[in-house]
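user: can you give me the structure for this one chain? C-alpha cells are fine.
assistant: on it. calling the predictor now.
[tool input]
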Amino acid sequence: MTSSLKSHYSAVIIGGGQAGLSASHYLKKHGIDHIVFEKKTVAHKWKDERWDAFCLVTPNWQCQLPDHPYDGDDPHGFMVKDQILAYVDRFVKKVDAPVLEGTAVTSVEKTGDAFRVETSAGTVTADSVVLATSLYSRPAIPRAAERLPENILQLHTADYRNPGQLPEGAVIVVGSGQSGCQIAEDLHLAGRKVHMVTGNAPRCARFYRGRDVVDWLADVGQYDITVAHDGMSKKKHDTNHYLTGRDGGRDIDLRKFALEGMSLYGRMQGVASGRMLFEPNLKANLDGADQVYNGINALIDRHIAANGIDAPPASVYVPLWEPESEPAELDLEAEGVTSVIWATGFHPDWSYVGLPIFDGTGYPIQRRGVTGIDGVYVLGLPWLWTWGSGRFLAVGRDAEHIVDHLARYIEVSRQIPRQAAGR
C-alpha cells in the first residue's frame, strides 16, 4: 500500500480488484514503477457486494491468480464466501501492490507523449494506463422501480445479504442470471414465498456423466476458445449460465422450484397501478435455458464418444414442469409482496476516460486488452480474450499479456528520444 503520490509513473492502474492486482504483480516482475488507484478498498466487491451464502460457481481448481493457485485440499469443491475472502486476502498480501485506496479517478486524457490522470488525491502523468475497473461499476436498476409502492423494500443483488434482512412477506426476484437464480434459491430454501421473473439466461448442468461439467468443458477445450474464433466476437455480451456450487454443487432448475411453490413469470414489462407486468415469454425462457443445458451435455457426449472414454450413460433433460399459462401481471398487495431484489446486472462506468477507444455501444475496442491507442490497456472484462478472462481462471494470463506488451511499448518509446538526440 502507498500513501503518497509521485508526479509521474511509467504505468497507472485504475482499479484494485483481481485484475488490477494481477497487472501490478507483472509490472513488479518487470521492474516497472506504477501506482494502483482504487476508488474504495482493494478487492472490495468480494467483501462488500456478495451475499452471505455466496460461493464459487466454478470449482476451486480454476482459481489461478498469478503465482497464487488454489492451495486448499478440495480442488473440486466450491469455496464459500469466507474462504474466497481468505484466498483473495492472501493474494493481496503476496502482491503487495502500490495501491492508493479511497482515490477516485476523475479523468484520463492524452497530453503530448504521456497521459494526464486526475484523481481525488491529485494529478499525475503516466507513460501508460491500465483500465481495470470492470463492467460492474454501477447497479443496473430499471426505471420501472420508481413506480413500485413506497412500502416495498428494494435491493440490488450487490446489497442483498440473507433472507433475514428482508421484511416478512413475499419476495420478487427480477432476473434469472447466476445471481438472481442463486438468491431466489437462497430465499426459497429459507421458506420464503418467491416470485421469480425470468429472462433469457442459459443454464448448465453441475455434474454430468460422472464428473463436474466444468471439468469436461476444460478437457474439451472450451476455456481456451478465444473471441478471435468465428462467431465468438459477440460472447462478451452473453449472460452467464446459471447453476450453483452450494452444498457441494448442484443444478438450478426453476421448473423444480415451481413444483415446490415458487411462482415464475416472463420478462418484466413494467410496473403500473400496484402491479408488475410481464411479457408472455416464460415458456420460451425456460425452454431456451434447457436447450443450452442439453446442448452442453451433447457436446460432452461427442467428446466422450470421440475419445472412447468410459463414463456413465448419456441422458437428456426432460422438463419437470410446464407453465399452464403466461401470467400477464402480479398484484403486489394481493400477493403480499414486501420486497423486490433487482438481479438486473450492472452498468460499466467509463465516464472518466477521455480517450477514443470505445465502440458505438460504449464498449472498449481492444484485442486481448490492447487498445488502438498506444499505452492504453483494458483488463478484467468478461470474454476479454477467453471464457475465463474476467475470472480467477484467466485474468492472470491476460494481465501477463498486456504487461508484456506495455513493457515493450515503454522500452521502444524511451529509445526514440535517445535515438533522436544522437542524430
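assistant: here you go. Helices lie at 18-30, 44-48, 81-95, 178-189, 213-220, 254-259, 282-306, 395-421. Residues 157 and 255 are 22 Å apart (CA to CA).
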